[in-house]
Amino acid sequence: MPPALDAVAALKGRWAGVTDRKSLDHPAINVPASGLLAVLKSLKDEHAFDMLTDLSGVDWGVGAKPRFTVVYHVFSTSGHDYVRVAADCADDLAPELPSAAGLWPGANWHEREAFDMFGIRFAGHPDLRRILMWDGYPHFPLRKDFPLAGIETELPDAEIAAETKVGLIAAPMMGGPFVAPAGEINMTEAEPRAKDQSWTERRPKPGA
Amino acid sequence: MVSASSELTYNSKIEGDVVVSRADAVINWIRTSSMWPMPMGLACCAIELMAVGASRFDIARFGAEVMRFSPKQADVMIVAGTVTYKMASAVRRIYDQMAEPKWVIAMGACASTGGMYRSYAVLQGVDRILPVDVYVSGCPPRPEALLDALIKLQEKVRREPSASKLLSA
């Protein structure tokens, strides 16, 4: 049996909360937030999944239950196999999961990014600051209720903001998003362009 | 007492070594011939900027090969790349530290307008925080386009009333 299937079977036998997750490629499991660290630790120490290749956040949309999920992809450098682990956040308003930075140091920056973009807090993280946006930015840009164009905000540096009288603006999205048409066409027509001119920043999208 | 053999008469020692010109022309000639760029390389445009500095395109032909990473020694800031809001304050601060006279070239679509990054994180044109002299189109622009921008900037500087500005300052 491949090491990934082996590991998944062992984990399901050991923890009742661990269930199969629909997957088209690698074996995947759902894990409750409370048992997450124990499952990850077992994957790393007992099943030799010694490398965390990715950690990403998912926002399923406003009103979805659960709203936030964190997905871990772990790889075994000896068994050459992946396992995908998904954990739902219990609280939709203040999503929180235990930090995996103590198991794989590589989780540190991934968790900071998930926190920066989705506002998912990781308990026990050694240095949970924003990593892409600046400290003090008030929004979580990859959440579904954050508009594509952005929200007007202050510049990060108050001195420069006072000097230039410039703040963050909602980016002009007239007719956007901008897409390249599919199919066989010549290079001039293949330029990405606004496909839907019926709405602008001032005129809301019809039917939206 | 003024001697008869004054300096106003023909003097073979200085003949040919004196050129009469206007102060503007002299000052502007000095300024245009040695514009030291501050390479504000923020994204892929910086790669083209490096090509401009290297031997194939050779910005030294126009007297601007002295890339200075200290704003105190630079004359023209070449903003090459995407300016995020997080970086915008640093760009403005570096511009403030440059000594007068100073100029700005916005290189490429991102620096000029935000380019394809119409997003919450990107400044929609560096001219929102800096006075830009020359905009260069392209994504990224060809090295020739940046050289053309430098020539355009030099033409612009040649038309400046530099002497009267210096006196009134």
How is this structure best described in words?
The complex is a heterodimer of chains A (208) and B (169). Chain A has helices at residues 3-14, 36-45, 107-118, 158-164; strands at 19-20, 28-31, 51-59, 68-76, 81-88, 96-98, 121-123, 178-179, 193-194. By secondary structure, chain A is an alpha/beta fold. In chain A, the strands form three sheets. Chain A has a five-stranded mixed beta sheet with strand order 1-2-5-4-3. A two-stranded parallel sheet of chain A has the order 6-7. The N and C termini of chain A lie far apart (50 Å). By secondary structure, chain B is α/β, with parallel strands linked by helices. Chain B contains six helices and four strands, in the order αβαβαβαβαα. A four-stranded parallel beta sheet of chain B has the order 1-2-3-4.
Give a brief rundown of this model.
The complex is a heterodimer of chains A (208) and B (169). Chain A is α/β, with parallel strands linked by helices and 208 residues long.
Q: Averaging pLDDT over every residue of chain A, what do you get? A: 86
| First and last CA, distance of chain B | 39 Å
- Show the largest interface: A-B, 27 and 18 residues
Q: Oligomeric form of this entry?
A: heterodimer
Strand content of chain B: 5-15%
Biggest β-sheet of chain A, characterized?
5 strands, mixed
Labels describing this entry:
heterodimer, A: 208 residues, alpha/beta, five-stranded mixed beta sheet, two-stranded parallel sheet, 4 helices, 20% strand, B: 169 residues, four-stranded parallel beta sheet, 6 helices, 4 strands, elongated
Summarize the helices and strands and which ones pair or pack.
The complex is a heterodimer of chains A (about 210) and B (about 170).
Chain A: H1 3-14, E1 19-20, E2 28-31, H2 36-45, E3 51-59, E4 68-76, E5 81-88, E6 96-98, H3 107-118, E7 121-123, H4 158-164, E8 178-179, E9 193-194
Parallel strand pairs in A: 2-5, 6-7
Antiparallel strand pairs in A: 1-2, 3-4, 4-5, 8-9
Chain B: H1 23-33, E1 37-41, H2 45-53, E2 76-80, H3 85-97, E3 103-107, H4 108-113, E4 134-136, H5 143-158, H6 162-168
Parallel strand pairs in B: 1-2, 2-3, 3-4
Helix pairs in contact in B: 1-5, 2-5
